[in-house]
Amino acid sequence: MNVVVDRVSKSYGRGAEAREVLTETSLTVRSQEFVSIVGPSGCGKSTLLMMMAGLLRPTSGEIRLGDEPVTGPPAGLSVVFQDYSRSLFPWMSVRRNLTTALTASRLGKEEQRSRVEHALESVGLAGKGEMYPWQMSGGMQQRVAIARALVTEPTVMLMDEPFAAVDAQTRADLEDLVLRVRHEYDVTVAFVTHDIDESVYMADRIVVLAANPGRIAADLTVDLPRPRDQVETKLDARFAKLRSEVFRLVMRPDTPATT
Amino acid sequence: MQTDHAAVRGPDRADWGGRAGPVALGVTGVVSLLLLWQLLGSLDVVPRSSLPGPWSVLRALPTILGDQDFLAGAADSAAATAITVVVGSLVAVAVGLVASSFAFLQRPTMVVVNTFRSVPATALIPIGVLIFGLGMEMKVSIALYAVVWPILINTIYGVATTEPMRRDVARSLRWGWWRQQALVTLPSALPSILTGVRVAVGIALVVVISTELLGARYGVGTVLVQYTQASRPEVVYAGVLLLGTAGALLFSALVRAERRLVRWVHHD
Amino acid sequence: MTSRTTSRITGATMRPNRAAIALRRTASGVGNLWLLALVLVLWEIYGRVSGSLFVPPISRILQNFGDVWLGGPASHLFLSDLFWSEVTTSLSRFARGWGLAVVVGIGCGVVLGRSRVIAQMYGPVVRFFAAIPNTVLLPIAVQIFGVASNMNVFLIFLGSVWVVMINTADGVAGVDPMWLRSARSLRVPRWVLYLRVIVPAAAPQILAGLRVSLGIGLILMVISELYATTEGLGFQIVVAQSSFRYLDMWSAFVLIGLIGIVLNLAFGRIETRLLRWQRRSGLDAL
Ligand SMILES: Nc1ncnc2c1ncn2[C@@H]1O[C@H](COP(=O)(O)OP(=O)(O)O)[C@@H](O)[C@H]1O
Ligand SMILES: [Mg+2]
């Protein structure tokens, strides 16, 4: 299902205090597509994603999932938040975290169980359902967060800097994990990051945001072959070229592109 | 051993309502409760003799405020509370600092504290009356028993959560025990200690008034019992209203003083 | 935040050693009892040396304790009839009053913590009630209920409900918005939001309030029985005192103390269990 961001603006605060953090932004994430959203810190990436998730209301403009306007968290859309320690529920076991995500979908007990097992298996946590988040490393917790997002079998998954808090090795593993489950679950992904390599490595398309106020500075297609590989892909000359282009856009969004 | 420092962390945050909220809403709340009170009486849910209406209680305020016994009793109760809190704080903080300074004393001290603080202090009143009689001494000693434990727990807790780096600094400067306590440990533990003291004030009041209800010679509790026996419930309610107001004012003053004293905490 | 994750990864693999850990814990628990034992020994010595009628040595109190409160048949767990009648009376009053306070306090606290308007309307009133030294309500409670169990229950309820309410409201108002946002994006039904997210998230503070209210409830249970009743543990103290049976008085006091200790320990157990997920501070090692 397409996610359409249609001339959306967002201001925080009211009256004289109001500050526009995102201005007249339009963007379409097409069905099955993997779009990276990259930009400097504070440019409004999270704001944009939270609006797509129906957790924030745009000041003007409209967000649509398929043909339906998004006015609250829509069914069939999942979010993976940046801070797993604050988005997973630490008082619930891993299994309970996942089944809680299913309470809205009114599935039978048996169906719930098989969904949970499948999701855990997909993220490499088979048999870890009885553990608690606080017994797990950061990387494992983020896997739980991904499993919790997948367990509802969403059509769209939004990820907000999901790997910002894990070490480099774990991060690479998790990147490949996401690329794999994306196909397994046939899910459309919008993936916010401030890491330029990551944005190129993961995506079919990169949307670069510029700051103050947030707006789209560029929309680049990634023509790297799939499946991606941490070593091979990053050696590809096209990877290097895209990477430096995104880098330039992020650092100096106003200079014209050199193609 | 289960400890519970959190237990003596009194309710202190005001971020849900309280001061800042629009006064109008607060007034609405109070008025709605007064109406409910009036209604309870009018519908005879509770007999007048047990729950006089809000008006007659308000009218009884001058009576109780003009009663010399009540005023003297209030002074007596306040004095007992004040002595208890001051003495209790000094003792508990001193013991807490010493117990925290020696690793072998820490856990055993917590065992003692957790044991004795679980014993409801009011059960000591008859014993206190036997030993000390019906005067100030009895009130203060029983209240002291009740008050020492929360302050002690909060002192030990405050010391335990001192930033270790600060202690290392003190050690590297080769400060002695006294100087280290005065310049590092005590200031670090102060916020926690003050919370304990605030909780202690509440407990001291409760216990002091309890002793008065059970026969202490002077005090607000004594006077209120007399009014109860004289079948003047509206005066008793007026007294409770006054005590509640005094208590509320005292607590907000304590919270404010605490904030001022430990303002540096938030600049860490 | 990061240190705990690394050290606790092993949590799952440590299970086989649980028995050994429990054993070691018990051993160190006993090792920490020496100071308590010392206090009791000092009491014993003082009682013997002073020869005071009012402060008997602990050994004689315990002997009396055995005579009065123990000595029942095995089917009564070796506890005397008096024990069963008085303890049940007192504890059932406590359970009713405190239980009601917990239910009402948590319920109203959640409402206060969630609704800004209601908090602004009733927050000040709640704080006012919390500030009343609650024993002063005792004469009033007797006025309303007379000398009956309901009086004790009412007083225990009224004394302990405010702390629970205030702590719950504080805890609920302070729930990390990320958890709420997370729950919202999972589209959980309302009851799941409240029962599985908000209340557990506020549990540390709710339980802290419950712990304080437990102490208050016990204090009020005793004082209300000392002030006016015809049965219960406090009443036993009064009877013993007025008939100059000081040993009986002390052993009733010891029983009340033991009940307080047991209730607090049990509460602590439950609390630790419910809050396992919370990062525990260094003090819990104490
Ligand atoms: N709730 C809020 N209230 C006011 N300002 C906010 C709020 N959330 C974010 N902002 C501001 O909006 C801007 C964009 O924030 P955000 O979307 O989080 O940026 P990013 O995710 O790209 O780092 C930042 O300058 C931030 O300070
Ligand atoms: Mg962000």
Record keyword descriptors for this entry.
heterotrimer; B: 268 residues; MetI-like fold; 2 domains; 10 helices; 0% strand; elongated; disordered N terminus; C: mainly alpha; disordered C terminus; binds adenosine-5'-diphosphate; binds magnesium ion
Folded structure, characterized:
The complex is a heterotrimer of chains A (259), B (268) and C (286). By secondary structure, chain A is an alpha/beta fold. Helices cover 35% and strands 24% of the residues of chain A. With 268 residues, chain B is mainly α. Chain B folds into two domains: 2-46, no CATH class; 59-267, MetI-like fold, CATH 1.10.3720. Chain C has helices spanning 2-8, 18-31, 34-50, 58-69, 81-114, 116-131, 138-145, 149-173, 177-185, 190-227, 233-242, 246-274. In chain C, α4 (58-69) crosses α12 (246-274). Chain C contains twelve helices and no strands. With 286 residues, chain C is mostly helical. Chain C starts with a helix and ends in a 12-residue tail after the last helix. The model of chain C is unreliable at 1-16 and 280-286 (pLDDT under 50). At the B-C interface, α1, α4, α5, α6 and α8 of B face α3, α6, α7, α8 and α10 of C. Bound molecules: adenosine-5'-diphosphate and magnesium ion (MG).
The proportion of residues forming helix of chain A, as a percent range, comes to 25-40%
Number of individual domains of chain B:
2
Given as residue ranges, the uncertain stretches of chain B (5+ residues, pLDDT < 50) are 1-15
Query: Which ligands accompany this protein?
Result: adenosine-5'-diphosphate, magnesium ion
Measured distance between first and last alpha carbons of chain A: 32 Å
The count of β-strands of chain B is 0
Taken from the alpha-carbon principal axes, the silhouette of chain B is: elongated
Q: What profile does the largest beta sheet of chain A have?
A: 6 strands, mixed
Write the CATH fold name of the largest domain in chain B.
MetI-like fold
Mean pLDDT figure of chain B: 85
**Tell me about the biggest sheet of chain B?**
none
- Which pair has the most extensive contact? B-C, 86 and 86 residues
The overall pLDDT of chain A, averaged over residues, is: 92
Beta content of chain B: under 5%
Mind telling me which CATH architecture of the largest domain in chain B this is? Answer: Orthogonal Bundle
What's the gyration radius of chain A in Å?
A: 18 Å
Number of helical regions of chain A: 9
**Oligomer type:** heterotrimer
What is the ordering of alpha helices and beta strands of chain A?
EEEHEEEHHHHEHEHEEHH
